[in-house]
Amino acid sequence: MDNVFTNRLRKKNFSLPEAYGSQFVKRVFQRKDMLFALAALLLFAGLSIFAPLLSPYDPNAIDLKNKNLNPSEEHLLGTDYLGRDLLSRILIGARTSLSIASGVVLISLFLGTATGCAAGYYGGFVDESISRVTDIFLSFPSVIFALTIMGALGAGVFNLMLALSIVHWAKYARMMRGQVLSIKKQEFVLSAITGGAGDFYIIRKHIVPNAIATLFVLATIDFGHVILSIATLSFLGIGLPADVPEWGAMLSAGKEFMRTAPYQTIFPGLAITFIVIIFSILGDGMRDILDPNHEGGEID
């Protein structure tokens, strides 16, 4: 965390995590955009959790007699080229996208935090080795890198999570390393080292709690990027199996009917757009609040 920000918090006699706990919520409630995004996210999360109960039809049930139907009372969002109910598929698709994205972000956050802490805290050969590895991973365009990995692994939920975690972890490691390099120079860390505290204790008690907030901002913004990556890979036909409802796959199937049944691409496209915007608003809001160098970002 920025030295100036950390010193300001120290002068007020409370730790950095305590500052976030006491001031962050207050600042969130002062921002209407974040409240709207949080409400929308809770709605999406609720729909995804209860999707099997809310879906009016089996999302994979084929009914060729009712294919390509326009939205109606019976099928609120219409049906696709196989007669499958679009509302049911979008609801289940929300569960698919959010669950896979959550797994990818958590795995990337854990790996990035661990490797970034090691690189920044120990320095020397450890730092040089980890930094070169992260540079290699960050040098590849993320989508092309994911395409290559998925081409080798094949379609599947686990393979998709693994591929995207491999693609995304390096950015967390790079950011965590920078945070650790700054924090380990602070007086409270130097005092702990002088007092004979072990490395693991210092990392667990002093380094990670004061550095993790910035990674949470990155994770929030990255959540939307991961959902876009999932949709992109599924759109290209190498993400998830055909029997797993997913928004990108729905876009790919609906593009053949853009003239006659545009709603087959409009509705899943809107779902992707809304969820990405939600996480973008949340990430930007968290950055504005937690970053003291950003306009409006100082926690009083």
Structure notes:
The chain is mostly helical and 300 residues long. The chain is built from 12 helices and no strands. The model is unreliable at 1-19 (pLDDT under 50). The chain has a domain at 100-290: MetI-like fold (Orthogonal Bundle). It is found in: Cell membrane. Its main location: membrane. It comes from Methanosarcina spelaei. This is Nickel ABC transporter permease.
List the helices and strands and how they pair.
Blueprint (H helix, E strand, L loop, with lengths): L2 H9 L4 H14 L2 H18 L1 H4 L31 H37 L1 H16 L2 H12 L3 H27 L3 H8 L4 H37 L11 H8 L8 H28 L10
Helix pairs in contact: 2-12, 3-5, 3-12, 5-6, 5-8, 5-10, 6-8, 7-8, 8-10, 9-10, 10-11, 10-12, 11-12
